[in-house]
Amino acid sequence: MALSVRCNVKSVFRFIHKINSHRRLFKAGTATGTTSLPKTLVFSGIQPTGVPHLGNYLGALENWVALQDKYSTVMYSIVDLHSITQPQDPQMLRENILDMAASLLACGIDPTRSILFQQSQVSEHAELSWILGCLTSMPRLRHLPQWKMKSKQKNEGSVGLYTYPVLQAADILLYKSTHVPVGEDQIQHLELAQDLARIFNNQYGEFFPEPRALLSGTRKVKSLRDPSSKMSKSDPQRLATVFLTDSPDDIVFKIRRAVTDFTSEVTYEPESRPGVSNLVSMHAAVSGQSVEEVVRLAEGMDTGQYKNVVSEAIVQKLQPIRLEIQRLRADRGHVESLLAKGAEQARSLAAPAMTEVRKLTGFC
Prior knowledge:
The chain is mainly α. Helices cover 57% and strands 5% of the residues. The N and C termini lie far apart (51 Å).
């Protein structure tokens, strides 16, 4: 698989033509009082928490890559404004932003087929968030999962954490997004964006489309040490999580130490055998096979032997990505340049949209 972010000349000109077309549509819309955008626009964001893990890749990023072929306009944002709802070391945050960008590029996010940018570099996100926040009630936000979960962990939460879903809605609505790839745990936040689109339209006139959820067959990868919980970067157990930058030896060791049970046969029974079933699910995902095919291939193996097969499949899948991340990390200037270009492209869409929002709300 060719994972290099370098693109051919035709792809570059095709993408430039697409962006220039969007600019012309906005310019014409500003003159006539209406803003035109592509009929379908996909938007999604990811926090800069450093290098993603296998669960992030199989559960979301692999689908992000596929969406580039299905939709004409796709935007992916590294949502660094969201990340500071929790304390951040500034230097570490800068490194995490670049690591996330390198990881997305290495996974197959192609700047000639999508717009990849850093959220904080497009100030219109924060401006629209304030306007939408003034249309939102406190009880509406209090019942959303982000606040209930994280404020409970901290016993209290910041204003930023409380209004996090409003900024998330602004991220989506700013570009008049029509589709948003989400997991089931984010449906309530997307419903807030839909509600705010309706409230704004009712108060100021029809402007924002109501974005639709793109629910794919999201693969939930479980912790290797506790298959009752999701794989997580914050897991204190080092052997619980496979990262995209793990070496082949690291992957083999982690899979070998994965929790299973005392039955040697390989079966897929998530309720009664969650550990083995997690391995089967990962194997099927990275190999492109069905669960049934994977189980059939494992006939006659015990779980120890099967772990070797799973390790080999994961190494084969992640090795090209790992090497590309290493290459991009060593070329920091190239990654920064791509993010700068992405921010410029995003601003070319966001600025005219906010001009119209300001007019509708009476600011100008």
